[in-house]
Amino acid sequence: MSNYHIKHLEEYFQVYRKSVRNPESYWEEIAEEHFMWHKRWDNVLSYDFEKPEFKWFEGAKLNITENCIDRHLRTRGDKTAILFEPNNPDEEAQHISYNELHERVAKMANVLKSQGVKKGDRVCIYLPMIPELAVSVLACARIGAIHSVVFAGFSSTALATRINDSDCKLVITSDGSFRGSKTIDLKGIVDEGLKKCDSVETVLVVNRINAEIEMKEGRDQWLQPLLEKAETTCAPEIMDAEDPLFILYTSGSTGTPKGMVHTTAGYMVYSAFTFKNVFQYREDDVYWCTADIGWITGHSYIVYGPLANGATTVMFEGVPSYPDYGRFWEIVEKHKVTQFYTAPTAIRALAKENLEHVEKYDLTSLKVLGTVGEPINEEAWHWYDENIGKKKCPIVDTWWQTETGGIMISPIPYSTPAIPTFATLPLPGIQPALMDEEGNEIKGNQVDGRLCIKFPWPSMARTIWGNHQRYKDTYFSAFKNMYFTGDGALRDSVGYYRITGRVDDVVIVSGHNLGTAPIEDAINEHPAVAESAIVGYPHEVKGNALYGYVILKETGESRNQDNLRKEINQLISDRIGPIAKLDKIQFTNGLPKTRSGKIMRRILRKIASNDTSNLGDTSTLLNPEVVQEVMDNVIK
Ligand code: PRX
User: What atom of ligand 1 comes closest to residue 513's alpha carbon?
Assistant: First the structure.
């Protein structure tokens, strides 16, 4: 039996039992056999759910980039580590070998050092999906700087909030980015954002699109000349197991984005272990995850997990619709992709297009298909299974979160079954629990409840940057001695889990986590707006879309409502990013509220979803008459 690589169902059950009976010895064995350490740990795990505090492999010393790069050089130096597929199909793909990656990371690390970046400093990375993004992430890890990657679709305000929250002193960006047939002025967005940031001393700029941009004297520098002068080796900074590796921001249901802090050793062990098993990665496979490195999926399953296993990982710069809707499948054929990992929203969008876009290409290289980020509906699952996997590729519906660092509940191909819409079984070491609202665990099968995890796992986020209290309140206060996920789930008669969706005010739109409160804050900045409430409603392609109820200060007919809608969406785009725009905006005179003044979102959600046959308990409503008005004016 191998703890590290599970190959059939019996083995899964054996390994799972062992991992739960004795988690310390289970993870210790894996850590010992599959990674490179400068010093062994003194203690595998110590934890306290009250504080809350979790420490894995305490006392150990390592550098994650040695595990992701250096240790492969002897056996896989010439193997492709990163396979870069550019936005434009006519531009040649780049095969970056482990040897080359080693050199590029060293040079970038040396440039960072020459700019005064030291262990523990925060570096913000705001780049498109080009090799420099992965190289920058790894270069930070090489020298012990904490990377904070901000998805390059976020606005200048969102970028500034994130830079300020963690006091980044350096930003790595590019002159612009290619996105389908468009170019985007990334440097302009950075310049705008940095007007509000005092901590940033240096901006390093990659030349990606040859744009004429402004370079601020004393702050901005082109990266290429610095790289050319840089030394080609860089000794790794030796890190403690619990030293922070990165911060990654995720939306909460209220307040500013939460800077989730992931630490080094546990994150490395768990992302590598789950990559190997969930994708059943074998030495000559070509693995492709279509996510952006700006999200946790890209951190764990484009960069760290695959590279820690010496894999070939594809990085795609473009979009699935350019130059046409066959692009994903063209890339699969071209690079003989073996594992393909994407989001349900992409599957739904592609399923709407003509099947010719799929049938033109040879997809026989595929072995495993994956989905992540939101529940996948049955129809999309079957389309994926039949047309992409040709019913021969197991589909792994992987449930996890920015906070969990790695995949938590998922089938393991050829071991646990793949069932449409079910994430199925917990991975080794993961102990889920379903809880009722009173805080009791719901045992047995055929039940549903709030999904919690009742034992620590190595890659859990350790805190929220600068706000440990919020970490405690958000994840460890609802249920005693448990991590609360914010999701609801059901366990069927056999014990398989199906994730039913968020139980808080986070809405998942096209696989992106969006807190409703920050969007409401943006809308409320509009001078004509008195109050607003945002809810999600089901959407054919995006999974959920956003519906806004807006009360205006003056209800006169004088203002053109379409213009107002445009202005509101522009504000949201400026404050957060285009992904948070509302699909529907209803102007209303009132919102249903409880006697204590809380907006009853449950009712608004039902109205927006066109599901008003039973509005549930409305006895605590202060203003029942408003409900009828809202229903009468609903936007279909
Ligand atoms: O609601 C769950 C949903 O996405 C949330 C986490 O979002 P984020 O931190 O952005 O990470 C996304 C990528 C890991 C979860 O709380 N979610 C994620 N995967 C699934 C899912 N919902 C259903 N099924 C999934 N496979």
Answer: 10
pLDDT 10s digits, 395-414: 999 999 999 999 999 999 99
Residue 597 predicted with pLDDT over 90: no
The residue assigned the tokens 């005179």 is 589
Ligand 1 mean position, distance from CA 399 (Å): 6
Residues with Cβ < 8 Å from 461, sequence gap 6 or more? 260, 261, 262, 402, 403, 404, 405, 471
Q: For a pocket test of ligand 1, which of 292, 297, 374 has the largest count of ligand atoms closer than 8 A to its C-beta?
A: 374
Q: For tokens 């050092």, what's the residue?
A: 113
Both structure tokens of 425: 């079984």
- Which pTM does this prediction carry? 0.94
Give the dihedral sign, CA 313/318/323/329: positive
- Distance set, CA 10 to CA 14, 469, 478, 498 (Å): 6, 42, 35, 22
Identify the H or E element spanning 421: none
| Cα-to-centroid distance, 403 and ligand 1 (Å) | 10
Tens digit of each residue's pLDDT (9 = 90 or more) over 599-617: 888 899 999 999 988 887 7
pLDDT value at 526 more than 80: yes
CA-402 nearest atom, ligand 1: 9
Question: For residues 403 and 262, what is the distance between their CA atoms, to the nearest angstrom?
Answer: 8
Q: What is the pLDDT of residue 504?
A: 87
- Residue 226 Cα to ligand 1 midpoint, Å, equals 39
Question: Distance between CA atoms of 22 and 17, rounded to whole angstroms?
Answer: 8
What's the pLDDT at 584? 97
pLDDT-based confidence at residue 557 (cuts at 50, 70, 90): low
CA of 372 to the centre of ligand 1 (A): 6
Question: Angle CA(548)–CA(251)–CA(433) in degrees, nearest 5?
Answer: 105
Instruction: Tell me phi and psi for residue 510, to 5 degrees.
Output: 50, 40
> What is the pLDDT at residue 452?
98
In angstroms, the CA 499 to CA 376 distance is 9
Residue type, 241: A
Residue type, 583: D
User: Best mutation site among 262, 267, 400, 497 for ligand 1, i.e. most ligand atoms within 8 A of its Cβ?
Assistant: 400
> Of the candidates 124, 189, 120, which has an alpha carbon nearest to the alpha carbon of residue 150?
124
Whether the pLDDT of residue 595 is over 80: the answer is: no
Q: Which atom of ligand 1 is nearest to the CA of 410?
A: 26
pLDDT of residue 556: 60
Domains and CATH numbers, the chain: 510-632 (3.30.300.30)
Q: Which of 202, 280, 253 is nearest to 5 (CA)?
A: 280
| DSSP class per residue in 433-449 | EEE-TTS-B--SSSEEE
Q: Whose CA is nearest to atom 14 of ligand 1?
A: 401
DSSP state of 364: T
